[in-house]
Input
Amino acid sequence: MIKDLAPFPFKAKVAGWMLFIAGLILGTLFAFFNLVINFPVLAIFSSFLEEKYFTVFTTNVTDELTLLLILGGMFLVVFSKDHLEENSQESSEKLFKIRAQSMFKALYYNTILLFFSIIFVFGQGFFWVMILNLLSVFVLYLVILAIKKRGTTKI
Output
């Protein structure tokens, strides 16, 4: 396995799922119950009523926290070792190859979806497509990886 690309330990996958679930809960509270978490933030660029650079102001950070939790959780889930990788070097090398193939396919399919979105989705809908695009590579990767691992009789 390439040392520079060594995955996180398996325990990070568990932490990732917890962050992801916390993000989903926070997002649900934000979307359906109008949860507001106001917090002072440093903005490199802000354009609410006027354009400002390098400014501090208080704003609702619930949507940012939601995305950070979900994205961070998915990152840990995707880039953490499988329980099989913790125990066997041989399994680890085979799974690394399957991971690489799965990531390639996920990026390939996600790019095709993005092309179609650029052509057929406009306005505010396109903004939401871009938000979903932050997570779609991870989701596609996990689905493709699960299918490939199932198709492999013994890793």
